[in-house]
Design brief:
The protein has 174 residues and is mainly β. It is 8% helix and 49% strand.
Length: 174
């Protein structure tokens, strides 16, 4: 199961068609996942016009659990060292911090992985306000669909994230 997940997750994805079709609704974003030697994946998310300034850098740690994949999310310290996947041999466990409450559960459905993050425990600071993340994910051979939603930790109203459905990231050629 992990080998097939690896096949689908490694690479670069962009939502160019979606962003160009509806520029008022969708930013043009690129996501990259690179395989690390220890079964982990380094990832970046960046606006296409700022690829050298990713707004998110992370490490994914997939484990098989009860026939599903649990992805443990880690923040990265010293982020500037690793921009564009540079010097990943220096990305040790000491430079990672587990994001408590932010594990994603994916289930294999046919040739795809489907799932996400539910609950109110994955905290994200948004403009100085405590919010929690929920998301829906579908990973296919050619696409990576992601719908991230951020809710106010006090009144549970959506403050950020998609109001128009999932981002539609298409796999880019190697």
């Amino acid at each position: 199961m992990i080998d097939y997940f690896d096949e689908l997750i490694v690479g670069s994805f962009e939502n160019k068609i979606q962003a160009f079709s509806h520029p008022s609704k969708w930013a043009f974003i690129r996501i990259t996942h690179k395989r690390l030697l220890n079964g982990l994946y380094y990832g970046e998310q960046a606006y296409n016009y700022q690829l050298n300034r990713p707004y998110r850098q992370f490490v994914l740690e997939p484990i098989v659990e009860h026939g599903k994949i649990r992805i443990i999310n880690h923040d990265v310290a010293d982020k500037q060292i690793f921009i564009n996947g540079r010097d990943l041999n220096q990305l040790t466990r000491a430079r990672m911090r587990k994001r408590e409450g932010c594990d994603v559960i994916l289930e294999r459905v046919g040739d795809d992985f489907v799932g996400g993050l539910t609950g109110c425990n994955c905290m994200v600071d948004w403009k100085g306000k405590d919010t929690y993340l929920q998301n829906e994910i579908k990973l296919t051979k050619d696409f990576y669909y992601v719908k991230d939603l951020g809710y106010d930790a006090e009144d549970h109203k959506q403050l950020w994230g998609s109001k128009h459905g999932p981002f539609e990231f298409r796999r880019m050629p190697n």
